[in-house]
Structure to design on (347 residues):
């Protein structure tokens, strides 16, 4: 009888733990939404009217909104179903979309998003969608998917088509940076309407971390570079990148690094004067070991005349959950960015 009772109690305890674990995540595997400390991964931002919208990795692309950058509201994802073009280009893709980027251009908000059917391998592509407004209450609100921009193929490409970042140069020409985890950051010129790569194609390599190991090995310890974000400040274009490993909770060692160039197409040079094409960069943000184990995948925006960095950080008090970080950027006397995560406006 004691054995039966013990077994019953063990089963009850197991079920209680299982149920507790179930309520800790939603149907997309994300933790419950906290308005003042939201979960996010790979955040980018755009403002429409008096509202800020942050987009990030998630099923259908995660979306949240705020009036003050401090208190957030969960919005519906962009895609309720798998983008149609992925069915042929990336069979088996599950609609868990990575690392979007958003830009307002020619009267519409354009979002570029990453799809990978085989995580850990460069079987990936970047898609493009747009809408005239970000306000879901507007009668004009509607995301229109425009399909694939660029794709990487296992065995053909050593770069990976993920982590897109769109920028308009000083002549008004749109460009798209992306990559890569393995073989660096690429930049391609887009058509004037951003619908495809310009023809003839124009490619530039912006940064690499050369490796002595075999390509396509997810555990490479010396080649991880991704999450490019280009930002013009004064006389320079700044190339922000993320180095090392994300996505491991408190065991992540993600960090943000930067180089700069007077030309969008490069070469990008670190603070010591060395090129990012040879694996060099200047690290500007790491985990503090108290609040965040690591942070990365940043974007940069001017808000009310001041520059801000958006990123995600692996929160130590939250057991390694990926949380939104928004912090001001200071520029030193030589125009290099300074980040202090203790100044963040999100807590």
């Amino acid at each position: 009888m004691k054995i039966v009772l013990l077994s019953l109690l063990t089963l009850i305890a197991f079920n209680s733990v299982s149920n507790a674990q179930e309520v800790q995540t939603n149907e997309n595997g994300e933790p419950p939404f906290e308005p003042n400390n939201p979960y996010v991964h790979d955040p980018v931002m755009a403002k429409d009217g008096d509202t800020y919208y942050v987009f990030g990795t998630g099923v259908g692309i995660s979306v949240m909104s705020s009036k003050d950058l401090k208190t957030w509201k969960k919005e519906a994802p962009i895609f309720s179903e798998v983008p149609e073009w992925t069915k042929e280009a990336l069979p088996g893709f599950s609609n868990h979309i990575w690392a979007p980027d958003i830009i307002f251009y020619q009267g519409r908000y354009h979002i570029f998003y990453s799809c990978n059917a085989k995580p850990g391998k460069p079987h990936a592509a970047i898609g493009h969608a747009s809408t005239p407004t970000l306000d879901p209450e507007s009668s004009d609100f509607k995301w229109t998917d425009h399909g694939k921009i660029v794709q990487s193929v296992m065995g053909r490409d050593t770069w990976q088509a993920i982590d897109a970042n769109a920028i308009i140069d000083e002549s008004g020409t749109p460009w798209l940076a992306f990559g890569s985890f393995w073989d660096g950051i690429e930049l391609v010129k887009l058509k004037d309407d951003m619908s495809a790569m310009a023809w003839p194609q124009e490619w530039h390599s912006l940064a690499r971390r050369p490796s002595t190991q075999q390509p396509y090995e997810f555990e490479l310890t010396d080649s991880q570079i991704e999450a490019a974000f280009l930002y013009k400040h004064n006389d320079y274009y700044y190339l922000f990148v993320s180095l090392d490993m994300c996505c491991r909770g408190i065991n992540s060692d993600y960090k943000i690094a930067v180089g700069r160039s007077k030309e969008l197409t490069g070469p990008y040079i670190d603070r010591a004067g060395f090129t990012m094409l040879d694996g060099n960069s200047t690290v500007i943000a790491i985990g503090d070991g108290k609040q965040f184990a690591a942070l990365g995948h940043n974007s940069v925006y001017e808000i009310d005349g001041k520059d801000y960095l958006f990123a995600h950080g692996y929160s130590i008090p939250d057991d390694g959950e990926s949380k939104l970080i928004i912090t001001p950027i200071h520029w030193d006397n030589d125009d290099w960015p300074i980040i202090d995560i203790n100044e963040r406006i999100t807590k």
Observations:
- The two ends are 52 Å apart (CA to CA).
- The helical segments are 2-23, 86-89.
- Residues 1-23 have pLDDT under 50 and may be disordered.
